[in-house]
Amino acid sequence: MNSFPAFDLSGQIALVTGAARGLGRAISLALAHAGADIALGLRDIHADSGLPGEIQALGRRVLALQMDVAHLDQIRRAVDDTVSHFGRLDILVNNAGVAPENLAENVVESDYDLTLAVNLKGTFFASQAAGRVMIRQNFGRIINVSSQAGFVALPTESIYCTTKAAINHLTRCLAVEWGKYNITVNAVAPTFIETPGTSEYLADPAHRADVIERIAALHRIGKPMDVAGSVVFLASPAASLITGHTLVIDGGWTAR
After folding, report:
1. CATH architecture of 13-194+224-246
2. Amino acid 14: pLDDT
3. Cα 180 to Cα 38, 87, 111, 136, distances in angstroms
């Protein structure tokens, strides 16, 4: 009989972008809890989040990095510094993202450019930088944070939705190219999650009620750890035959 599925990440090194708060914070802590040492990609390294201390309290090593993914030099430096500090890079979680809201007829070029720069361009070039390391290692796990918005239309979010749909297909493309190097590339696509980024929208009683109703099967708004658990799974040996897949974490929204 083959060995049972393993979810332990002990001895592995993970880099999480957009790690300071919300999903990135939860993912970083969950990966550390599973045994990984963590490099934190931070848009502002000088902002005190307390996260490094929480990771150390779990008995894991941690490295804070300046990593605004809209700047390719910061992406490349962060990956290089991760490898220099830890000796390798096993897991990349592309979590950083922005979502300026506006009706399509009112979208301005600066918001369009920023959304593509962070969500899509940043994801690609972070994957490229990490992928080059993983190719040399002949091992790697890349998990992209997409969204249910890559599958359904959300009013006022046309550009955000477009970038997330593109991330879903980029995930497939990279999986096909890099599978021969023992690199898997997958994505998770959450629904509305209780994070600082959604707090204002969900504070509106009408919006909150609409979201809960649309989450057709479970009728509850997700918590960051609902997403983090799926990321740990996709990074783990238990998911070694899964690649090119986007796992929708939406409580049944897209099942309608």
Report:
1. 3-Layer(aba) Sandwich (3.40)
2. 98
3. 26, 22, 37, 12
